[in-house]
Amino acid sequence: MKPKNILMHFFLIIVSIISLLPFVWLLSTALKSGGENIFAYPPELIPRHITFDSFTGVWAQIPFMAYIWNSLIVAGVTVVLNLLFSSLAAYPLARMQFGGKNFVFFAILSTIMVPFQVIMIPVYLIVLKLGLVDTVSDFNGFLGLILPFAVNAFGIFLMRQSYMGIPKEMDEAAICDGCNSFELWYKVLLPMSKPALATLAIFTFVGCWGEFLWPSIVLSKQTMFTLPVGINHLQGVFSSNWRYIAAGSVISTVPILIFFLSLQKYFISGQNQGALKN
């Protein structure tokens, strides 16, 4: 192995270890018994007495399964809508010719530079006016969580770049076989864009699963809380059971790992879709 590659691998290993340290501390906190000081300095990452009481206790402390189902519904529907709308919006931008196409594309792309916190208040007012809050109904509450994130500029950009990497001869062959524009998108472009779809699905799922700010603003019913908001309510005004919070946070990472591992074979190749030249 070349010295340059050795140095690069060493650097990546160090970065990986640094990235894992917060999770290791979280797991260590969840496994420690009640008599151990979780804020000891220097930190004690290896518990003296390993116990799983925090993992069982957090299920009894809050309706943990209900929070998981709420998060799964919100994240699952958001992923499906993102895949559908992003792939549809990217199709004309990649394959059709119309006036102002580049302007539309760059206008969509420019929205990536606007943080959600900047438009959060106008979006909340719109959601409130439309009655998409859980005080109207549980269904409306889910819509209020899902619709503001049903499509995003990153997804459109990723799918457009993926479509542009597919030879246009495939389009001509499909048209000769009698495919219309919709069938060309559905039968040709989508099946050949599985890596990009998997990449978009993973990023969308991770973002929705860990979203805390928007659900904490929109939701008012405890039965409608998503997992991050529900775990946060373990923190009291005067005291907090940090072992329960750590245990709940560790459990909340399991669905993300399962979702990522199920799409891992597409993820590596999909990461490079956005690097294609226009």
Description:
With 278 residues, the protein is mainly α. The protein folds into 2 domains: 22-51, no CATH class; 61-275, MetI-like fold, CATH 1.10.3720.10. Helices cover 68% and strands 0% of the residues. Helix 3 runs antiparallel to helix 10 (194-209). It is globular and about 75 Å long.
What coarse outline follows from CA principal-axis ratios?
Answer: globular
Total strands: the figure is 0
Task: Could you tell me the CATH topology label of the largest domain.
Answer: MetI-like fold
Our Rg estimate from Cα atoms comes to: 23 Å
Treating each run of at least 4 consecutive H or I residues as one helix, how many helices?
14
End-to-end distance: 35 Å
What is the count of distinct domains? 2
Task: Please describe the topology of this protein.
Layout: H1 3-31, H2 53-61, H3 64-95, H4 101-110, H5 116-129, H6 138-146, H7 153-164, H8 169-176, H9 181-189, H10 194-209, H11 213-218, H12 227-232, H13 242-262, H14 264-270
Helix pairs in contact: 1-13, 2-13, 3-7, 3-10, 4-7, 10-14
Search tags:
14 helices; disordered C terminus; mainly alpha; MetI-like fold; 278 residues
